[in-house]
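Support case: flavin-adenine dinucleotide complex. Customer-provided input:
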Amino acid sequence: MKVVVIGAGIAGLLVAHVIGGDVVVLERDKLSDEPRYRAGVPQGRHVHGLLVRGAEIMEDLLPGLRQELVAAGAYLTDAGDARLLNTHGWAAGGRTGLPLLTVTRPLLETHIRRRVTAKVLDGVHVTGLSFSGSTVDGVLTGDGRIDADLVVDASGRSSKLATWLAAAGVVVPQPSVVDSRTGYATRLYTAPPDFPAVLAESLSAPSTPRGCAVMRVEGDRLMVTAQGAGGDHPPRDPSGYQEFLESLRLPVAEMLRPAEPLSPVYLFARTASRRNAFEDTRSWPGGLVAIGDAVCSFNPVYGQGMTVAAMEALLFRRHQDFSAAGCVSFQRRIARTTRSSWLLSSGADRGWVGDARPGPASRVFAWYMKKWQIAITRDADMFRRFIRVVNMVAGPATLLSPVVFRRLMVSH
Ligand SMILES: Cc1cc2nc3c(=O)[nH]c(=O)nc-3n(C[C@H](O)[C@H](O)[C@H](O)COP(=O)(O)OP(=O)(O)OC[C@H]3O[C@@H](n4cnc5c(N)ncnc54)[C@H](O)[C@@H]3O)c2cc1C
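Agent response - structure generated as follows:
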């Protein structure tokens, strides 16, 4: 089977690796052998937290990747060493035994690309799908057409799949969108000695629209991403950016005093969570599947995207049937794989969307999350449980077990 994958991001590279055999990845950007920021992945300039579960899957698919990244300068710490501040105080902290890598997106992506066995053709912009009857039989590019028995759309948030399908008369359902109107502003600094590997203040609707995530990354640098929700975006000019950092409860401005800025401030604001219910399309064509952000993208403050992409690559490995019916059932399985991450991020963001009368489910969700936010500041065991769920090594159902429910009720 000849497979064409559109996009050499995290989802495209990992899925091409598990397919093996006759597969080619088409990437519109020119790629470098060295880690570089690139136009097709503008998010690469901002903090990219790789959750523990995502790193585990990548290690499983590409054995030795973690050590390669560490050798290239990435940091390896315990997930419980992250210094986290929420509306109710500092998280308790404590060792979890979960290894957490901190690394920039370009370094991670370059190392994955070096290890992936599939052929990657760069500088190829896919402009549409080619059809034979109701089946996709290739892709259109600026230069012509490339044949495929199966096309995998992994072109990310900017995917044009819905438009391409509409041109062929296939109407996909309107996407669900939850937009917290969060803006990112990121600057690199030299890392003062003993600066924590991860330092963050979380946003919380509606009381805490400002936050920050700092990661120690290769090259002995700090990546400092200021975050503002509800339209309260951090600015690009360095003095406004500095004022934004000083306005936080997190003492990050103070902690950065000995650090030297190494870059301008970069902005990004297309952060809405968006879910395409491709599985509900009435006449989904054979020969086509979609994965990664092209199907479901999350508000990046929750750091889920790369891990969900890795989980989908595993799903692809298990799903053997890519007949017309098999493609539809694959999209259903993708929808199930993204469901809990979607519920978590979109549920937490409902408070930003100006819902004057939140429904009972939203109110219960907000109340329960507040209980958790309090509990993790007071109880190291509850903190460890929470960190396991946030890093996707345990399912969200573990936050609802009777034991933890009783303990939450005694937190104030
Ligand atoms: C600001 C921001 C911060 C983020 N932070 C995190 C984080 O902390 N942790 C985390 O896990 N995730 C984070 N994410 C999400 C993460 O980047 C993605 O979920 C993850 O990379 C998987 O995406 P993907 O592979 O589907 O798409 P991408 O990684 O975006 O890759 C898509 C690729 O397709 C290519 N492409 C697009 N159109 C075409 C075309 N027509 N023809 C050929 N090639 C094409 C693009 O150039 C690109 O290389 C963040 C996202 C944003 C926006």
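The first strand starts at residue 3 and ends at 6.

Case will auto-close in a few days if no follow-up is received.
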